Amino acid sequence: MVVFDMAGTSVNENNIVYKTLQKVINEVGNFSLSLDEVLAYGAGKEKLQAIQSVLKNCLNIEDEELAKKMFEVFLVKLTKAYEVEDIFPNANANELFSALKDRNILRVLNTGYDRKTAESILEKLNWTVGKDVDALVTASDVPRNRPYPDMINFAIEKFKIENSAQVVKIGDSIIDIEEGQNAGCGLSIGITTGAHNLAQLKSAKPNYIVNDLIELVNIIDGKR
Q1: Residues 6+ apart with CB under 8 A from 36
Q2: 3-state DSSP call for residue 94?
Q3: Dihedral sign computed on CA atoms, order 18, 80, 139, 66
Q4: Count of helices and strands (H, E) across the chain
Q5: What are phi and psi of 190, to 5 degrees?
Q6: 134 by DSSP, 3-state: which?
Q7: Which pLDDT band holds residue 83 (cuts at 50, 70, 90)?
Q8: 120-151 burial by CB neighbour count: b if 16+ within 10 A, else e?
Q9: Are 218 and 224 in contact (CB under 8 A)?
Q10: Which residues of 44-58 are buried (b: 16+ CB within 10 A; e: fewer)?
């Protein structure tokens, strides 16, 4: 089984989520945070958790009510953004999904989005669970979010995977890599197409770092 993060990994959405998050935090709080700061502390996390992390680490603010207010505004603005902005499968995502299916390897999407948002993205991409991918697990499906392994464990239980070492996790953020490591995945892989750069990904000590999803074929086939 391969577990894919969505935004920045299997989905190319030009950082809509984090640009929206940055805008909301700055507008609601009258701050001036950069996109890099928001990405550094918010990438890959459930989005209320991301807001709390950005406020704490960038501004030394721990205000639950402020974070909740920002999160509510964020959900409204993100829905509108996804209605008007173009999003696409990331490079070679469809080709990789097909290659994995040919090898009888399960394809699971997991995400820090809530289920409503994640399903709207799949609809826009024309991806269907059961055809293009085998399952979707979202932050709202489990008690704890990344870096805890709950979403991966949910998929492992769903498909009755006997050993987590049979699972590969790939994502574009440090917290994706940590999630895979905490779940005991056989491989935790970073990809440079999203939130975190090469140096940031290396700091999490993944098994591999790739620049394109299609590189997973050779890794899985044992050719790299």
Answers
A1: none
A2: helix
A3: positive
A4: 10, 8
A5: -100, 150
A6: coil
A7: confident
A8: ebbebbebeeeebbbbbbbbebbeebbbbbbb
A9: yes
A10: bbbbbbbbbbbbeeb
Cis peptide before 147 (omega within 30 of 0): yes
Tokens of 124: 């826009």
Give the mean pLDDT of the chain. 94
- Written as six digits, the tokens of 44 are 């890959």
Q: What is the pLDDT of residues 64-82, one digit of tens each?
A: 999 999 999 998 998 888 8
> Do the beta carbons of residue 213 and residue 92 sit within 8 Å?
yes
Q: Read off the tokens for 133.
A: 């991918």
Q: How far apart are CA 135 and CA 126, in angstroms?
A: 14
Contact 82, 108 (CB under 8 A): no
Q: Which of 84, 67, 78, 72 lies closest to 19, judged by CA?
A: 78
